[in-house]
């Protein structure tokens, strides 16, 4: 840079200023290239927006392409005797449920111990647990010098004990309380040898064992008697799980879950219109501000819109007859968005639910509208699809422009170096000429002064 700042010293000309103007003019060659790079980057971002909204639309299409959606059912319960949850296998219908009794777990409280610090078993031993179902009988090892709390902990630590142990105070002493882990008559705890294990260490008034046998649930479904060891009954109504709450009456109505189907169709419409809105913004021209969207006139966008519009307008053949969007309460408006007639959709769901399912999800032999759209969106979003191809093309263009930018920069540097060298040579040449001019002027002035002096001397 020192060579630049020294320019003009010899000649007195503003060569630095001139060189700066030339450099500014050369640098201007880079601006169009940088703008093209920026344009391509904006395009890539716009394609990314398209991918995002198309992906969201693809998700909504996938939901409608799932036959399970149209097989979903819901259960409504009146009365507080039961709660119900319907699965995919449930058949629509009405079921009257009468609960006579709910299933309970067996309980047993042992004889009393006067104090929690009392050693129940000095030598240790075995606590025998007996159940209505003898296969559940189990012995729990009790260590020497165990208190009532130690016995409780030993039971709860044994995974085969089939009871939960706790301690209760009945106002006169402490008892070991045992509750069966499972409900029902057969799982009921019915006895122990606690009095033998703790012989000699019980309270003065040990009292007797207090027990309450477990019981099975008893109910009727549409007049059919049902017994169950648990309060959760999964096989009384196919595909429906009943959860018994209390004795009493309830009505369970199983019906097709039209609300979920409707929500999926509304979501499909919203996702498509959101995609159209994004596309419109990216391809719009603002006449007032003179600004064009980054994808205005883009062939990829036109191809995507055309493919989806063709799928939507083609309809679906059902039993030899053509079904159209309008049959489902849907229509393509003038601006290309989808419009939904909610009343007509609700009517189709109520009167021809199988037709709605066939239109959107199709069957094993023929895809429905959602299946056709799914194939289209899958191709568009694939690594070999139109969007990814456009992104790759823009990235390749950016790489080419960056190479061109670098070459142009190098060319500008060489040009400026040449200007700098030429200006330095010019400055030196002009400086030498100025020195020569000054020398000659001095010499001529000197010659003129000598002649004048000689003439005056002669006159004297």
TrEMBL record:
Residues 214-435 form the Flagellar hook-associated protein 2 C-terminal domain. Keywords: Bacterial flagellum, Cell projection, Cilium, Coiled coil, Flagellum, Secreted. Pfam families: FliD_C, FliD_N. Residues 11-105 form the Flagellar hook-associated protein 2 N-terminal domain. Its main location: secreted. The keyword Coiled coil applies. InterPro entries: FliD, FliD_C, FliD_N. It is found in: Secreted; Bacterial flagellum. Homopentamer. Belongs to the FliD family. Required for morphogenesis and for the elongation of the flagellar filament by facilitating polymerization of the flagellin monomers at the tip of growing filament. Forms a capping structure, which prevents flagellin subunits (transported through the central channel of the flagellum) from leaking out without polymerization at the distal end. PANTHER family: FLAGELLAR CAP/ASSEMBLY PROTEIN FLID (PTHR30288), FLAGELLAR HOOK-ASSOCIATED PROTEIN 2 (PTHR30288:SF0). This is Flagellar hook-associated protein 2. It comes from Franzmannia qiaohouensis. The gene is fliD.
């Amino acid at each position: 840079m020192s060579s630049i700042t020294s320019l003009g010293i010899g000649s007195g000309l503003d060569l630095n200023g001139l060189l700066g103007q030339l450099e500014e003019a050369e640098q201007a060659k880079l601006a169009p290239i940088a703008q093209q790079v920026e344009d391509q980057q904006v395009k890539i971002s716009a394609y990314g927006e398209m991918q995002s909204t198309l992906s969201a639309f693809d998700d909504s299409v996938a939901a409608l392409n799932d036959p399970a959606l149209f097989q979903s059912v819901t259960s409504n319960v009146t009365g507080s005797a039961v709660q119900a949850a319907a699965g995919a296998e449930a058949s629509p219908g009405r079921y009257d449920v009468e609960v006579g009794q709910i299933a309970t777990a067996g309980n047993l409280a042992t004889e009393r111990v006067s104090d929690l610090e009392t050693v129940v078993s000095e030598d240790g031993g075995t606590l025998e647990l007996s159940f209505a179902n003898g296969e559940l009988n189990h012995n729990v090892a009790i260590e020497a010098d165990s208190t009532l709390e130690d016995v409780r902990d030993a039971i709860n630590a044994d995974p085969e004990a089939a009871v939960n142990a706790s301690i209760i105070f009945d106002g006169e002493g402490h008892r070991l309380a045992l509750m069966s882990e499972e409900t029902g008559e057969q799982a009921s705890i019915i006895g122990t040898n606690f009095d033998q294990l703790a012989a000699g260490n019980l309270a003065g008034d040990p009292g007797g064992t207090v027990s309450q046998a477990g019981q099975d649930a008893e109910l009727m479904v549409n007049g059919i008697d049902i017994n169950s060891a648990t309060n959760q009954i999964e096989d009384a109504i196919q595909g429906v799980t009943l959860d018994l709450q209390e004795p009493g009456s309830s009505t369970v109505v199983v019906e097709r879950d039209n609300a979920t189907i409707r929500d999926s169709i509304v979501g499909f419409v919203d996702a498509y219109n959101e995609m159209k809105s994004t596309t419109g913004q990216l391809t719009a021209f603002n006449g007032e501000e003179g600004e064009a969207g980054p994808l205005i006139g883009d062939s990829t966008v036109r191809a995507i819109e055309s493919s989806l519009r063709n799928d939507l307008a083609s309809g679906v053949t059902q039993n030899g007859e053509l079904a159209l969007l309008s049959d489902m309460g849907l229509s393509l408006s003038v601006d290309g968005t989808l419009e939904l007639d909610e009343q007509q959709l609700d009517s189709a769901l109520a009167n021809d639910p199988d037709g709605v399912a066939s239109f959107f999800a199709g069957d094993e032999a023929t895809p429905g509208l959602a299946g056709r759209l799914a194939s289209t969106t899958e191709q568009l979003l694939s690594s070999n699809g139109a969007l990814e191809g456009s992104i790759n093309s823009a990235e390749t263009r950016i790489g080419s422009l960056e190479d061109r930018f670098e070459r142009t920069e190098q060319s500008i540097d060489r040009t400026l170096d040449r200007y700098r060298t030429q200006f330095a040579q010019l400055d030196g040449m002009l400086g030498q000429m100025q020195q020569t001019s000054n020398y000659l002027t001095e010499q001529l002035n000197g010659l003129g002064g000598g002649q004048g002096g000689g003439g005056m001397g002669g006159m004297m």
